[in-house]
Write a structure and sequence with these properties.
It is globular and about 45 Å long. The chain has 5 helices and 11 strands; from the N terminus they run E-H-E-H-E-H-E-H-E-E-E-E-E-E-E-H. The strands form 2 sheets. Strands 2-1-3-4-11-10-9-6-7 form a 9-stranded mixed β-sheet, with helices on one face. Strand 3, helix 3 and strand 4 form a beta-alpha-beta unit. It is of the alpha/beta class and about 230 residues long.
Length: about 230
Amino acid sequence: MNIVTPRVRVLTGDQRYADPWHPFAETGAALRDWLAEAYPVELRTDEPDALGELAGIDLLVVNCGIGADPANPPAANAEWDAAFAACERWLADGGRVLGVHTAANTFADWPAWRGILGGRWIRGTSMHPPRGPSRFRVLAPDHPTLAGLTEVEAEDERYSLLSRDSGTVPLLDHDLDGSAEVMAWASADGRAVYSGLGHDARAYDSPTAKRFVTNAARWLLGDREVSPPASPG
């Protein structure tokens, strides 16, 4: 029996959606390497066709940022607006999204993005303490994204005071001065997962972070690995 294997595209910041603080080339490569253990993976930089032409792709992993100047994020333009609209059609047809780290702060020029991801980094409100050894607590131990995990440990930033939509399923949190701060969730419709993990290569040197991200991909793609129809005749 032949199996159709889901295909993954990692979209990583390089130009329009890069920023001065995150090494997107190395984190995009790390994501590709993790996911390539189970799926065919393309690594693409932030060109409109990489977002808008998703035929044959089942999961889009977004590893992009706000742009070079957070005070002046990229303005809308026709080429990117067309890519956003095409991606929305792909999502309506069953596409799935895994947003990583600065994905909560990207696509300021795409009004639908927050609803797709289930939340957003709010400039002037959201923050993180200095990067360092961090522990993230499991909030939904029965959720498939957290299978085999009792906590996640990583050398990473602890995103805090994120704005999260109602109905999202909290997956991981951390303690910020006594406040429980959620920094990973599944969207209410189950079509997206957001993970605040993944600042740089050191953050990817974590078996538990890898387990969480690969679990999330597997869950999002869980209904995609099917046998193709038999050839007629």
